[in-house]
Structure to design on (557 residues):
């Protein structure tokens, strides 16, 4: 088999816009058909959703870089899609094969305006790593400095431009013919995604992000950020200082090098709190591939293509949020998040407050239970299922970043304490801040927090207060009423399905009999087959209805 025949369609040079549109539309139609069929057969179970999630991942990999990135972006959107899909998409990796080194060299020479031997003393033709957007080669400058050269995949921008049009057409079709998808605001998601994607393939933009990030941590020697070599950087080529390190979640190697994992956890959380609370400029995708540890225990950050920003004017409010989290002040946290634009205000914020209160309850002076995080994810999806609205992208970036950092910390120390690891940030903030409103505010918040710790109510008092709050909000009454009405509605729904299947069975039998008498045996067989299938569905629905009625009677006793 030739090498070209093993390539995916998007990797081939001759790939027409019409063929691309057919591939994308066909994959979308197959996925929606499977969802409809599962729903039609009542197979809306978690296991079925996991299977569909795995199939979706394989389809995205076949469609190439744009759709791999879409999958990675959707893996953070538990406000939009079921948990089983976010879990499957969260495992999506850049499994795209590396491209020809000659093509990489051609891109470098074209972008930097010189031959590879003129630009570099040595250039390793075998890439260190390959991803959907490009690959990385090690090289040596003529001055003797070791660097890595990040080269964009040839034809990538042309493919994105093509997909930009195809996906926009698909979004318009879905919005027009499938009303159920309109609540997800696909047009806004589409614009948000491609805006970030075009930034990520602009390596000049990534280089500027790296310089800004490096400057923010210039006074902290335990945080290392590779230097950008602008003489050897262009839109499709990025040359960075070579900073090798140990993978951040490789606990065995880290301990073998006599590096304290707890100090790494504290440094990582303190670093990220600075990004959020002081700088307002944070790495939105801190996965293990983007972080490493040097031999002397310093943290190394890579990949600055996906950075997110919070308005600088909101940093004081973010400090308030930090203390509100420590005091488990639900109202304060929600108010701060709305102020920062990280939550969209709604007439009824009760579901949001319920979720925030649940999350804050997990921040105790002990390791956070993994089952509690799973429950938090379930609560998040249920909340958006009951009251669907879309969170701003920055909020989802923060949620993804925090959960990713939590996973990295657990790999280093399963018993780590998130709250204890974050408190040294206050000391660092105090030491770095000058006299002024920030220090004054910090002192006030610290005083308030100490007062809270000394006067906080007992567990029994907190439980009574929570119960009073739930009664005032009508939450208990709402839940009881919903359970009763849900049971009745499910029985009505099953009864209607039984009636429909009975009518279809009888109609098919009648038509088949008439065709058989009219000397049309072939068509009669088709209708008898349809009648048998409808009869099977009728029996299954009747059995489900009988089981449902028995269960409801047991519950009502």
């Amino acid at each position: 088999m030739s090498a070209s025949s093993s390539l995916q369609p998007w990797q081939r040079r001759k790939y027409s816009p019409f063929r691309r549109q057919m591939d994308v539309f066909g994959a979308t139609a197959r996925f929606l058909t499977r969802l409809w069929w599962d729903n039609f057969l009542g197979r809306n179970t978690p296991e079925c959703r996991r299977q569909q999630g795995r199939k979706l991942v394989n389809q995205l990999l076949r469609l190439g870089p744009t759709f791999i990135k879409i999958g990675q972006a959707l893996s953070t959107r538990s406000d939009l899609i079921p948990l089983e899909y976010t879990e499957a998409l969260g495992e999506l990796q850049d499994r795209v094969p590396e491209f020809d080194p000659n093509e990489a060299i051609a891109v470098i020479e074209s972008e930097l305006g010189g031959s590879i031997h003129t630009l570099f003393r040595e250039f390793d033709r075998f890439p260190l790593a390959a991803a959907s957007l490009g690959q990385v080669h090690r090289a040596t400058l003529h001055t003797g400095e070791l660097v890595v050269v990040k080269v964009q995949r040839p034809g990538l921008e042309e493919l994105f431009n093509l997909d930009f049009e195809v996906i926009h057409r698909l979004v318009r079709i879905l919005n027009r013919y499938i009303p159920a998808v309109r609540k997800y605001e696909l047009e806004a998601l589409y614009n948000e995604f491609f805006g970030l994607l075009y930034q990520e393939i602009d390596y000049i933009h990534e280089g500027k992000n790296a310089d800004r990030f490096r400057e923010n941590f210039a006074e902290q020697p335990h945080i290392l950020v590779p230097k950008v070599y602008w003489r050897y950087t262009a839109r499709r080529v990025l040359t960075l200082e070579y900073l090798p390190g140990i993978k951040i979640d490789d606990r065995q190697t880290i301990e073998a090098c006599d590096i304290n994992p707890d100090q790494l956890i504290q440094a990582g959380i303190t670093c990220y709190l600075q990004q959020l609370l002081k700088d307002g400029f944070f790495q939105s995708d801190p996965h293990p591939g983007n972080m490493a540890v040097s031999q002397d225990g310093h943290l190394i950050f890579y990949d600055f293509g996906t950075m997110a920003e919070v308005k600088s004017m909101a940093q004081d409010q973010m400090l308030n949020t930090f203390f509100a989290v420590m005091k488990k002040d639900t109202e304060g946290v929600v108010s701060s998040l709305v102020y920062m634009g990280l939550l969209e205000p709604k007439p009824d914020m009760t579901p949001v407050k319920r979720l925030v209160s649940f999350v804050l309850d997990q921040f105790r002076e002990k390791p956070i239970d993994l089952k509690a995080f799973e429950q938090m994810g379930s609560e998040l999806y249920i909340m958006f299922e009951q009251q669907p609205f879309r969170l701003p992208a920055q909020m989802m970036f923060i949620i993804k970043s925090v959960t990713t950092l939590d996973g990295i910390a657990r790999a280093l120390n399963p018993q780590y304490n998130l709250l204890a690891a974050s408190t040294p940030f206050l000391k660092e903030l105090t030491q770095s801040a000058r006299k002024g409103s920030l220090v004054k505010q910090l002192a006030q918040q610290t005083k308030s927090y100490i007062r809270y710790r000394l006067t906080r109510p007992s567990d029994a008092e907190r439980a009574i207060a929570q119960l009073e709050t739930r009664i005032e909000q009508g939450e208990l009454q709402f839940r009881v009423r919903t359970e009763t009405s849900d049971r009745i509605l499910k029985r009505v729904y099953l009864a209607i399905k039984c009636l429909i299947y009975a009518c279809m069975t009888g109609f098919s039998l009648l038509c088949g009999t008439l065709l058989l008498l009219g000397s049309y045996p072939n068509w009669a067989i088709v209708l008898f087959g349809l009648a048998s299938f409808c009869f099977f569905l009728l029996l299954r629905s009747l059995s489900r209805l009988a089981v449902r009625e028995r269960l409801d009677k047991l519950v009502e006793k």
